[in-house]
Amino acid sequence: MATYHLIEDDDRILVGLSGGKDSLLLLELLAKRAKIKHPQFSVEALHVRMENIQYETDTSYLQQFCDGLGVRLHVRNTRFEIGSPANARDARRQKQPCFLCSWMRRKEMFNLAQELGCNKIALGHHQDDILHTALMNLTFQGRFGSMPARLKMRKMPLTIIRPLCMIEEQDIKNYAELEGYQKQQKLCPYETDSHRTDIKRLYEEIERMNPEARYSIWNALNADNKLIEET
Question: I need a labelling partner for 147 at 20 to 30 A (CA). Which of 54, 137, 166, 231 fits?
């Protein structure tokens, strides 16, 4: 919060709650932090159901989880279709249903945030996600950058924040097991069929060569101002 100035007084934050360990931890930490009253901010949660992807979380568990934290839960349904691409760029994107799924869920979040008067959207990406994305961008797009800890939108009064950005995934796994977080009923069928899975294996090999690689990549992102951006 302090390093990247993620939360300020009077913020209204909408948390993307997929039901995975990362989003559950994010909601728990923000809900508990909001009770301290400094800074003063409020938290609400959104769970988006993708109707045509078998990616399922027990909604009753999410409701119980939110009730226990005193957080209001919103549930929205959406879907996407993979049709004939209009151009080559669309064709490349449509090879990956992950792009369309992510876009439609993000669209629901933007719409609800503005309906509720929220000025910030919190996503549960941890440090490993950000480092993997940096490697993906280098490998497949020829640019150095990643998912920033804070991303201010120019076209709408919203800022995307990633409060778990300095937490390692393994620490989240350990905490989820200690707290007994309920696992998702059905995982996404595309979860292990993507470039991200390949990059994760590559990153693990890099860490075997240099256990300090995590900090080297993170410091490089910081030095190049890639963790606070506007778009």
Answer: 54
d(CA 98, CA 197): 12
Cβ atoms of residues 13 and 41 within 8 Å:
yes
Q: Quick one: CA dihedral 165, 59, 45, 108, positive or negative? A: positive
Say yes or no to pLDDT of 164 above 90: yes
Range name among 27-41, 89-103, 149-163 with the lowest pLDDT average: 89-103
Helix (H, G, I), strand (E, B) or coil at 220: helix
Task: Provide the edge-to-edge strand list for the sheet that holds 72-78.
Answer: 72-78, 41-50, 11-16, 120-122, 159-161, 150-152, 228-230
Q: How confident is residue 196, by pLDDT bands cut at 50, 70 and 90? A: confident
Q: Which amino acid is at 176?
A: A
